[in-house]
Amino acid sequence: MASISWCCLFCLFLAVFVAQVGFCSSSKVYVVYMGGKSGDDPDDVLSQNHHMLASVHGGSVEQAQASHLYSYRHGFEGFAAKLTDEQASQIAKMPGVVSVFPNLKRKLHTTHSWDFMGLVGEETMEIPGHSTKNQVNVIIGFIDTGIWPESPSFSDADMPPVPPRWRGKCQLGEAFNASSCNRKVIGARYYMSGYEAEEDSSRIMSFRSPRDSSGHGSHTASIAAGRYVTNMNYKGLAAGGARGGAPMARIAVYKTCWESGCYDVDLLAAFDDAIRDGVHILSVSLGPDAPQGDYFNDAISIGSFHAASRGVLVVASVGNAGTRGSATNLAPWMMTVGASSMDRDFASDIVLGNATKFMGESLSLSEMNASARIIYASEAHAGYFTPYQSSYCLDGSLNVTKARGKVLVCRHAESSSESKLAKSKIVKEAGGVGMVLIDEADKDVAIPFAIPSAVVGREMGRKILSYINNTRKPMSKISRAKTVLGSQPAPRIASFSSKGPNSLTPEILKPDVAAPGLNILAAWSPADGKMQFNILSGTSMSCPHITGVATLIKAVHPSWSPSAIKSAIMTTATILDKRDKPIRVDPEGRMANAFDYGSGFVDPKRVLDPGLVYDAHSVDYKAFLCSIGYDEKSLRLVTRDNSTCDQTFTAASSLNYPSITIPNLKDSFSVTRTVTNVGRARSVYKAVVSNPAGINVTVVPKQLIFNRYGQKIKFTVNFKVAAPSKGYAFGFLTWRSADARVTSPLVVRAAPSPMGLMR
Questions:
Q1: d(CA 594, CA 499)
Q2: Residues of the chain with pLDDT > 70: what percent?
Q3: Cβ atoms of 656 and 615 closer than 8 Å
Q4: How far apart are CA 507 and CA 614, in angstroms?
Q5: Has this prediction a pTM greater than 0.70?
Q6: Which Gene3D superfamilies match (predicted)?
């Protein structure tokens, strides 16, 4: 009998043990977002968070504390904790909770550019007619992979003391001490609780500190605010003096991104601290995968909403998916940036045996001493690989005997995530002496290949293959990469830059603007490749260009709101390239439109004198939320005040945004905008309209007469379907005075008629 009892007791213990193990293993990290700051003492907020957690842990305070990762209690409220799905569901129903969502991982959207945009000066980046010396009082926060503080780009030589408003800190950690911060890098923090909760932190290769091991964070910070470096170059390429957009501005670092990405709970902690620390601008070169989820289930949207309400402009990258409708970071309260080329390329010559010369993108610094046979990689297929598979130079797909001593022409699939650099290593291991890589997506990104190599597009690749197929003994020689200045047309919208329309709220145009993001030289982390500088491409690089421009505006106009700064950049942008021709899009060369570049390519020479701005504040964003379906109860959860939907818009298009998008025009529709005079006190502006195809646009009044600085005037834009059309049509509205041109893109799609035909 006793043996049976012991057996039952053991089975019961085992069942409880297994249940507990199952319970623990099914828990995961969630963000519990509770809206704006309530005014409670931060210590009380922590206690309240523990109390909420204890209620779903059977009253156990110990289990509540063990599950807790972060409390957000400065810029907004909420917490992060390890929860089961059931516990998360219970908390989502509690009073005061806006949303509960899993700890998702975000991806990084990964010089001469300032000369190309027309800014000159080694240290001050002066714009004619203005002094930008006040940039020493502007603090930029970078949410990224950290910083390499010893880089010459982050020297504090001749910089004044740290601004008194700064409330941040220099967090110590691995290879990072108090002296790692200075009068340039005035603050540095790191966040890894969200990362450690999701991944094996014992395998982490990065420094457990704000120090940058990947280079991405140092790169973006130096683009926006790097000091002048007399001889910045990449292994001899692109040599010359270089600096960031606001070289005397201060830098604050918030390291949230590790080897595999950036987790939501860490990102929110960084936003929370940055708002309290006193940054003026936040630069965020990362984002979610498309399609993006609801604004208040997205860490960057949440963080930027509360940052904007505290007067902090958030600049973010649009993403690198490159396809229509793939834009991310879609909220109207942040500024979203697409990527373009410059008039500088890095290229290698491909000389064929018939003396025909092609130029392909490359950062390869090795060179072929003599010409060699060139073959299509499919001719060197090995083992079980088909010729088609081998044409993509997959690992193990090449026959060493057939590839040895030859130049191989390989393909790179349009949707492939394979490394182009890895393909050159595969060719090298097979004995190849060079590689021509046909990029089916025609993304003009230069790569530091392992052997003499160059990337060409489809058309150039077709010509090279035609030479091979029609020549008895085809030969080729590939030169080392060189810097090519003056390449035209420029700028072009990069093929990888994500495009509109906005998949979440089509009435808000995204991206907002475009800036250089292709083959950008900037500071780097010597921990990766033992280099001080590197060349990268991505909307990660275009984002800090706009951050730098915004910093100069903040320096000259310190009282301007985030939306006023954004408006100044958008309404002064250009849709023409350096030859005054319409900007085009890689790879096909089609004419670009607002879904590619938003308002256009940034023009820093004009941003300080926009004439008029489209301003917006928290009350406007609340009305916007009401217009997209938020009721007063859910709105108050976000804002933590007595906000109502009394002032809501008839449609989201009515937000006072610098662009106007009507995604479903049924016969006619009107929107009202308000402009604020920030130019000459007494001035007159006249409306000039370029109608979208098939749409008649009228503006009332047609003339705006201002008598003082800061005066606001409303006007109405009326849209009416005039002719049947299919898809979106594009035009613009410009307010023109003697001194200024204030331009807004007009993006309109007519709704289908009841019979299914276009009106």
A1: 9
A2: 92
A3: yes
A4: 16
A5: yes
A6: 2.60.40.2310, 3.50.30.30, Peptidase S8 propeptide/proteinase inhibitor I9, Peptidase S8/S53 domain
